[in-house]
């Protein structure tokens, strides 16, 4: 019976929290963009003329097929992160794509049309060097994989290993390349640095070593980039120090030395400090490569050369030229070369590979994005036209990871912003008001200049509003006649304006490559992008919104702090988040490494919040630092505190600001690093509002929340990772006084710990190593039945410690990230958004994570709507907010309040970006989508007319009665 | 007293005529009629009395002691009315229970509204009680009865939890405390 009651209570409580998306709501307010990352290998499917496939393998361990007409994904396989899923090589032959994964751990063959796995072979251990398709008598049958100490040959159709052979002297010789010209032999090339080249010749059938020779090459430092095999087995190497080319026929036995050809004899010279690069092409693995090759002498100088009768002859000199690539269609091989046209555009031309002659009418103009980076990779897709001439399309990858697909004469077919596969941090900014709204706002902002002008001004602005409204009505009427599908509001930067409920915002995203994006949150359209050059990899970014759009006519202002990981020096980039333009505001020079930033609620005369930057000498720099700001800072200095956490020393220290912008240390907490190390620290979000100051108990008394805005949650992990002794520590520390408010240790627990710190609670997830499961734990802090001080909160005057309640639950899934919903006023109940490794986002009601959940239900707990305690946390499929739109490799979830109290905007980023809205307490402040306007209005009108008619009838009747 | 009108030649009377039309009133002018009236006619001979004259004495209409008691009683009825309703209200209260739903709420509203209405129209009630000698006492009783009625309604509200008597009822009006310190920072970047 009791169990029945419990179940009833749970199901009733679920009734209020269930929030699934209906089928017809799919895609209405949510969108997903899928990305692949920086392209490392790209191959066009030249198997058939009509093929639209483009196979790519990226640095994000993604292997995907793109539609070359639209840029959409046909299919995508996301492998493990890190070196385990690293794609070492991509080879394609016909319908098969062969991929070597995880430093030569696995060899996989994929069917390219649907992306199905054909076979997978586990390779022997050893670090991967090279892989090549091996052809015999015009048929490609095998794939060879070269490891550090062994070579193996696999059947292309089944993946079965034909043979594996150890390489001779593999401890001294570095084997790096495989070559096969389709004549039944496989050559493995290796070298001993500054000594000699080793060439081993294997027989394809059984792996027998046919020949092994070594050739003197004292100048050799690397085989991979500076050597290539061309024209029926001629090894060609280039060396910068000796300024020479070296050739060697692989098969002939008599050559024991490489033939040296000085570049001077060809009137060529390698730019100093540049490692020259040789590029050859082998259109068919069963045929020897072409005799033509590119030699890159400097970053913008390529030359097409030909080896003919042991002589090297230049075919065409491309100076300047940024990029060059070969492409083959049928029997014809062409070379595409990108040269600079002017400052903003490049031109790509096609040349015939065997003669170096330019093909007529083959120019593609590539317009470089002024806010983007330089092109650095060129992929060419050549095809035969009906008149047997060669046509081509190119894909250009730039430094800022933009993929642009172009066709003649320069039409951009599609573009992909692959930098978005690696979003580091983001913010959402309100859109500006429309011109008319701004007009009205501006009226209030200005000083009064007499009564009559004010009236006239008001009238004129009202008139403008009326006009806008009429135009809007007209547009509605006009659109209503068109079919639904054709009405699609294109969002451009000019039409941006805030909507009624502020649901549409600007997403400012910072990516690891240093490219900034402004994305419309409603449609996912990239509205602006800005590539910041000279950003070192692994830089640390911190994005701060200094001024929102609320201060018309001042434009909104965002500041990006970029900190170089090596030098520690920081720089500020100030921009307008709506238009992406760099602001011309003088930024302070930061000569010392920046340790932390602090955004003060103090505003300057231009309504920009003041940003404090703390350097490694604990000196503070203010930005902006006008006189007004400094004056205000002096007034408020005594109440400005900041804390710094040094994880390596296990030290938390608190500082107070002095009048002269120096600081004094006021507290220090040391957590010994031998035992545990600090992994994360989080305060509360600055824009969080808590509507209710307490919780109503069953007996209608109040349990007041301990809402300390200065509270920090510090999570530590033990250094001992033995499963019996490992633990996770949780410290709640007041950031002003350094007082440890609460301290908890979770024994037999292990990280990674994900946690959310908000209102008066802290939710954290850890791995229970004893029971081998994930567990949620919730801490809630209460002041008790009375408030100590209901008007002001000061950390310096808190004599009573809070009451702490804690409860833990089993969560039946691993999680990858955790965040809480956020609404405008904090009235709506909270949900936790849990990103699962499967790509689903779970919206878990906070109600389930409540330490007051009773084990035995009583009258009072029922009154309070508490769900009885159950150790298992349920996962309901309707709680997945992203139905089948899974987000690969969720890295972060960003939540922002909207103008509607019921609605919270959610952006999930990782490899993909997913944006949606959640309604934790359902949409209590808007009419439902399926609200029956027709019925309601017809009933209303019906009733109105019925009253009118009955009134008339009643009058007639009264009159008649009076006459009687 | 039998009417011989039926035999009388010029009689206008219809009394007793079951079939004839019933008149609202009638004056009998015939002498025969008078004769039948009894002995007075024999005394005074043929004196004609004016129309509408009645020789019966008019009954005494002055206020008697019994009527006065009646008024008193009636006034006490009015004064005690609210008090008399209280047991009834108690019963309704008991029956309706403490759950918050439309019917109990309606009952409580009615219970609360009636005494208030009565108290508002106190002066009209006083006019009613004017004739009574114990007017002030009755007024007081009436007032007390109504106050008791409203107290009962308030008690009912209280037991239903409709009165803002707990601290939780004022929770929504507590403003978030103003923070005195500004704090920020984080891990060393």
UniProtKB/TrEMBL annotation, chain A:
InterPro entries to which the protein is assigned, alphabetical: Beta-prop_EMC1_1st (IPR058545), EMC1 (IPR026895), EMC1_C (IPR011678), Quinoprotein_ADH-like_sf (IPR011047), WD40/YVTN_repeat-like_dom_sf (IPR015943)
Secretion signal, residue range per the UniProt entry: 1-20
Biological process according to GO: protein folding in endoplasmic reticulum
Boundaries of every ER membrane protein complex subunit 1 C-terminal domain copy: 758-963
Domain of life: Eukaryota
Cited SUPFAM superfamilies: Quinoprotein alcohol dehydrogenase-like
Gene Ontology CC terms: EMC complex
PANTHER family given in the database record: ER MEMBRANE PROTEIN COMPLEX SUBUNIT 1
Record text on subunit structure and interactions: Component of the ER membrane protein complex (EMC).
The protein, known as: ER membrane protein complex subunit 1
Organism, scientific name: Phoxinus phoxinus (Eurasian minnow)
Automatic annotation (TrEMBL), chain B:
Subcellular location: Endoplasmic reticulum membrane
Composition skew (Gly residues), residue ranges: 1-11
Signal peptide: none
Keyword Acetylation assigned: no
GO cellular component terms attached to this protein's record: endoplasmic reticulum membrane
Superkingdom, natural source: Eukaryota
Protein's name in the database: ER membrane protein complex subunit 4
Species of provenance: Phoxinus phoxinus
């Amino acid at each position: 019976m009791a169990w029945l009651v419990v179940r009833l209570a749970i199901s009733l409580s679920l009734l209020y929290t269930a929030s699934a998306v209906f089928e017809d709501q799919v895609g209405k307010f949510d969108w997903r963009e899928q990305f692949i990352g920086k392209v490392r290998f790209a191959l066009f499917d030249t198997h058939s003329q009509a093929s639209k496939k483009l196979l790519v393998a990226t640095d994000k361990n993604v292997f995907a097929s793109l539609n070359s007409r639209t840029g959409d994904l046909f299919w995508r396989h996301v492998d493990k992160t890190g070196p385990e899923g690293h794609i070492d090589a991509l080879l394609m032959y016909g319908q098969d794509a062969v991929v070597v994964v995880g430093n030569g751990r696995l060899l996989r063959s994929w069917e390219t049309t649907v992306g199905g796995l054909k076979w997978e072979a586990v390779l022997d251990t050893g670090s991967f060097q090279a892989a090549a398709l091996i052809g015999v008598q015009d048929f490609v049958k095998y794939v060879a994989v070269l490891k550090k100490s062994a070579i193996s040959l696999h059947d292309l159709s089944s993946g079965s290993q034909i043979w594996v052979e150890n390489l001779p002297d593999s401890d001294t010789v570095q084997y790096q390349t495989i070559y096969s010209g389709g004549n039944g032999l496989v050559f493995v090339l290796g070298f001993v640095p500054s000594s000699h080249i080793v060439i081993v010749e294997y027989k394809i059938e059984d792996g027998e070593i046919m020949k092994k020779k070594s050739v003197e090459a004292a100048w050799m430092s690397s085989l991979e980039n500076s050597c290539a095999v061309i024209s029926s087995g001629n090894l060609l190497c280039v060396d910068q120090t000796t300024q020479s080319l070296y050739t060697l026929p692989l098969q002939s036995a008599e050559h024991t030395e490489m033939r040296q050809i000085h570049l001077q004899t060809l009137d060529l010279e390698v730019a100093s400090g540049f490692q020259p690069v040789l590029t050859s092409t082998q259109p068919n693995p069963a045929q020897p490569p072409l005799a033509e090759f590119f030699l890159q002498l400097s970053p913008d100088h390529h030359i097409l050369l030909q080896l003919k009768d042991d002589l090297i002859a230049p075919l065409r000199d491309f100076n300047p030229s940024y990029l060059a690539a070969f492409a083959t269609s049928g029997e014809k091989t062409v070379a595409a070369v990108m040269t600079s046209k002017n400052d903003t555009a490049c031109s790509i031309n096609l040349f015939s590979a065997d003669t170096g002659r330019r093909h007529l009418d083959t120019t593609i103009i590539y317009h470089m994005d002024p806010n983007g980076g330089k092109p650095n990779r060129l992929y060419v897709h050549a095809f035969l036209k009906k008149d047997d001439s060669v046509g081509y399309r190119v894909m250009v990858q730039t430094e800022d990871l933009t993929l642009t697909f172009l066709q003649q004469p320069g039409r951009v077919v599609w573009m992909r912003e692959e930098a978005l596969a690696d979003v580091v941090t983001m913010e959402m900014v309100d859109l500006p008001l429309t011109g008319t709204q701004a007009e009205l706002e501006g009226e209030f902002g200005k000083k009064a200049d007499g009564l009559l002008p004010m009236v006239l001004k008001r009238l004129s602005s009202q008139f403008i509003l009326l006009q806008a409204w009429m135009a809007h009505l007209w547009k509605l009427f006009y659109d209503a006649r068109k079919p639904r599908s054709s009405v699609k509001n294109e969002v451009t930067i000019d039409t941006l304006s805030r909507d009624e409920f502020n649901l549409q915002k600007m997403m400012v995203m910072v990516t690891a490559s240093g490219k900034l994006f402004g994305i419309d949150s409603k449609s996912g359209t990239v509205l602006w992008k800005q590539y910041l050059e000279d950003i070192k990899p692994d830089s640390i970014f911190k994005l701060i919104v200094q001024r929102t759009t609320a201060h018309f006519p001042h434009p909104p202002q965002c500041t990006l702090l970029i900190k170089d990981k090596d030098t520690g020096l920081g720089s500020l980039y100030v921009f307008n988040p709506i238009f992406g333009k760099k602001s011309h505001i003088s930024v302070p020079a930061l000569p010392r490494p920046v340790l932390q930033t602090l955004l003060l609620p103090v505003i300057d005369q231009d309504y920009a919040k003041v940003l404090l930057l703390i350097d490694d000498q604990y000196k503070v720099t203010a930005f902006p630092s006008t006189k007004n700001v400094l004056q205000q800072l002096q007034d408020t200095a005594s109440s400005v505190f900041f804390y710094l956490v040094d994880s390596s020393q296990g030290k938390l220290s608190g500082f107070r600001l002095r009048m002269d912008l120096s600081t004094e240390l006021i507290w220090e907490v040391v957590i010994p690093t031998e035992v545990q190390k600090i992994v994360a620290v989080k305060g509360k979000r600055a824009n969080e509002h808590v509507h209710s100051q307490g919780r109503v108990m069953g007996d209608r008394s109040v349990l007041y929340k301990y809402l300390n805005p200065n509270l920090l949650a510090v999570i530590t992990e033990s250094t001992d990772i033995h499963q019996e002794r490992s633990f996770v520590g949780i410290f709640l520390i007041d950031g002003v006084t350094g007082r440890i408010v609460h301290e908890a240790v979770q024994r037999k627990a292990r990280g990674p710990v994900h946690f959310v710190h908000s209102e008066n609670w802290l939710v954290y997830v850890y791995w229970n190593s004893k029971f081998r499961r994930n567990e949620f734990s919730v801490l809630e802090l209460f002041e008790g039945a009375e408030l100590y001080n209901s008007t002001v909160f000061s950390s310096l005057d808190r004599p009573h410690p809070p009451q702490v309640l804690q409860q833990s639950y089993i969560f039946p899934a691993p999680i990858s990230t955790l965040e809480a919903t956020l609404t405008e006023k904090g009235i709506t109940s909270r949900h936790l958004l849990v990103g699962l490794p499967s790509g689903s986002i779970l919206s878990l009601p906070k109600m389930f994570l409540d330490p007051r959940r009773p084990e035995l239900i009583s009258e009072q707990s029922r009154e309070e709507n508490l769900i009885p305690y159950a150790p298992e946390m349920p996962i309901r499929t309707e709680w997945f907010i992203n139905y089948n739109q899974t987000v690969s490799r969720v890295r972060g979830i960003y939540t922002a309040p909207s103008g509607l109290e019921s609605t919270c905007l959610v952006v999930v980023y990782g490899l993909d970006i997913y944006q949606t809205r959640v309604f934790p307490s359902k949409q209590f402040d808007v009419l439902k989508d399926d609200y029956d306007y027709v019925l309601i209005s017809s009933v209303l009108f019906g009733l109105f007319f019925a009253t009118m008619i009955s009134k008339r009838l009643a009058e007639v009747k009264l009159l008649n009665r009076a006459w009687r | 007293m039998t009417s011989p009108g039926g035999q009388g030649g010029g009689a206008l009377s219809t009394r007793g005529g079951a079939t004839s039309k019933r008149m609202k009133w009638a004056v009998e002018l015939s002498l025969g009629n008078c004769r039948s009236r009894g002995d007075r006619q024999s005394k005074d001979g043929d004196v004609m009395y004016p129309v509408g004259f009645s020789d019966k004495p008019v009954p005494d209409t002055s206020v008697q002691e019994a009527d006065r008691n009646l008024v008193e009683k009636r006034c006490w009825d009015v004064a005690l009315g609210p008090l008399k309703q209280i047991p009834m209200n108690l019963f309704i209260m008991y029956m309706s229970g403490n759950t918050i739903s439309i019917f109990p709420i309606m009952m409580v509203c009615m219970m609360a509204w009636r005494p208030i209405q009565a108290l508002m129209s106190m002066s009209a009630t006083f006019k009613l009680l004017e004739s009574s000698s114990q007017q002030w006492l009755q007024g007081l009783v009436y007032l007390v009865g109504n106050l008791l009625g409203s107290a009962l309604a308030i008690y009912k509200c209280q037991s239903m939890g409709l009165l803002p008597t707990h601290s939780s009822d004022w929770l929504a009006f507590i403003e978030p405390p103003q923070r005195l310190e500004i704090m920020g920072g984080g891990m060393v970047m």
